[in-house]
Design a protein that fits this description.
Tetrahydropterin Synthase, Chain A; 3-stranded antiparallel sheet; disordered C terminus; 8 helices; alpha+beta
Amino acid sequence: MDVTAAVVWLIILVLLFIVARMSIRIVRQYEEGVLFRLGRVVGVRMPGLRFIIPVIDKLPLVSLRIVTMPIQSQGIITQDNVSVDISAVAYYRVIDAVKSVVAIENVAAAINQIAQTTLRKVVGRHSLDQTLSETEHINSDIREILDALTLEWGVEVTLVELKDIQLPESMKRAMARQAEAEREKRAKIIAAEGESIAAAALGEASDTMMAHPLALQLRNLQSLVEIGVDKNTTVVFPAPLMSTIGELSAFLARETQAAGATARAAATASVPLEASAPVSLPAPVEVSAPARVPAPVAAAAPAPVPAPAKVA
């Protein structure tokens, strides 16, 4: 009898333990529990120690943390008929635990599928250049579309980002050539602007040198000094300096000639002039008239030949 009673008490304790285990639920801080009683939603249980009626109540737990969901690469044709492979990543969180349990069966799978179709639809409305340059605008459009669809499921999409864009090799080469041509264009524009600024500065400098001629000579001397810094055996004289040297040489020559003429005039005035004998001029030579050439003699006419005599 004592053994039977002990077994009964043991069974009762085990059943009480099982019932207690089934009736006690712990809801963590980042979760909410949706309480179903006999299949109907009774309410939401907040974090902490919660008790339910075994078999009658069910308390599924819903995580409220942000979930990272990768969107696998999609082959998409852009508006300008370029095939690209684009992958993305989406971040979402549950804001209504009841809707996320009652309105849809599998929130993660549903968001994954709708994100793939939305990504294909949004990128297909843009050209390749817009896809590469306006990623922020595309991300915002995808997030707004997903938000409008998932709010009914009690889910909020917080962020969508394009993660990777794979281009065909031919398109990569074409874009590389385009980028190189663009860089060459910018380089030529910058060089032309620099030449324009330099030409304007040279024009101002030339105006200043025209107003002050000595400035040009000083600049020439400065150029000679700069050339002479290195150990060169070649000396370059600017053309204006050579013309100046030529003018100076001509001036010295004129001064020397004037001094010589003055000295000769002074010497001539000091010596008396001697009378010189008259110079006899040679008699004029008579030029005989050219001999007359006889006229050509006319050739004599041939003698007439006598006519033959008639025989009787």
